[in-house]
Amino acid sequence: MYSKQMAITFDDSIQMVDLQTQYYRLKEEINAAIQEVLNSHAYINGPQVATFAHHFAEYLNVPHVIPCANGTDAIQIALMALNIQAGDEVIVPAFNYVAAAEAPALLGMTPVLVDVNPNTFNIDPQKIEHAISRRTKAIIAVHLFGQSCEMEPILRIAEKYNLSVIEDNAQSVGAVYTFPSGEAKKTGTIGHVGTTSFFPSKPLACYGDGGALMTSGEELSERIRMIANHGQEVKYHHKYIGCNSRLDTLQAAILNVKLKYISDFTKIRIKVAKQYNEEFKYLPYIIPPYKSSFSTHVYHQYTIQVKGKKRNELQSYLKQKGIPSMVYYPVPMDRQEAFRMHARKTDNLTVARQLSESVLSLPIHSEMRDEMQDYIIEHVKRFFKITG
After folding, report:
1. Among 98, 144, 239, 318, which residue has the least CB neighbours within 10 Å?
2. Do 154 and 165 contact (CB within 8 A), yes or no?
3. Is 150 left (phi over 0), alpha (psi -120 to 50) or beta?
4. Dist. CA 169–CA 159, nearest whole Å
5. Which domain holds residue 343?
6. pLDDT, tens only, 256-272
7. What pLDDT sits at residue 346?
């Protein structure tokens, strides 16, 4: 642990996600993969795209993976493939990134905002049923920050009301949900359709935009493929109204390399999270991330709750010490101007609002060195000593 006089002495600064160092670790393989694409000139739908889809399907143990351009497109395509229509309602968590509500709104659907569990920050199954109306057609279950939603009751409710279930798994690739029966499945493979993003900071990430959908349904997978490719069954024969959403070959080549290391990267983030947990567990103003009993946690984010309205003050203090942090998310969905006329809420969303005022995400990534984490921990503790 650093002394009070000690400052950062390593050459590079602390990052929320250290993409540069991770690239240097994999540089030889990634450069070779990129060069192969450049040599082939197959920049659109090159063989690396199909290879990645196959390898990712094997990793997830799901029959079908369909790559696309980004995670938001993936949600939109899933809604279209499930035949959700304009005017229908889609249940989404109130505490979340905008994409889960934005995609249905873009299609003329109504996002229905449901509050989240105060421990996991994921959608609260106990509050879903009250939000269902005769127009409800789907639930978007977002696996936030690295662990699974409580899927068994969500699936039970969906079956009772004949609803489709879409999993937004952009932040939790590799997490495993265990049903009460003991059956275990990777997140993204549990509902009717799973979606993910390969945005550079995600657990499985490329060097630009990218996304994918996954499903066990044969017919559904074919419909997804067509919708993502202008609705074409064969070239120039359009069966559905679709869109143009494809994973770039260069990005697929990069993902083929990084997929081989995803388990190793996850183990490192778990180790970092355990160290944070150990150091913070007795700090009265901090609530460390909760890990549910039914899910593993891949710690895409290490998100604490800061009590006593000290969150912003702590963030400012850490910034002065060269320590980045992020607030995911500072404005709950019901208070976003864009959704005032386009969303419906079912209660006062107390938990979502409380979290937006108290959460703070600290640096966590696969390249975290001990001295970096020690420095962060030291200054978090020092802040609370100073402020009492």
Report:
1. 239
2. yes
3. beta
4. 21
5. 262-387
6. 999 999 999 999 999 99
7. 87
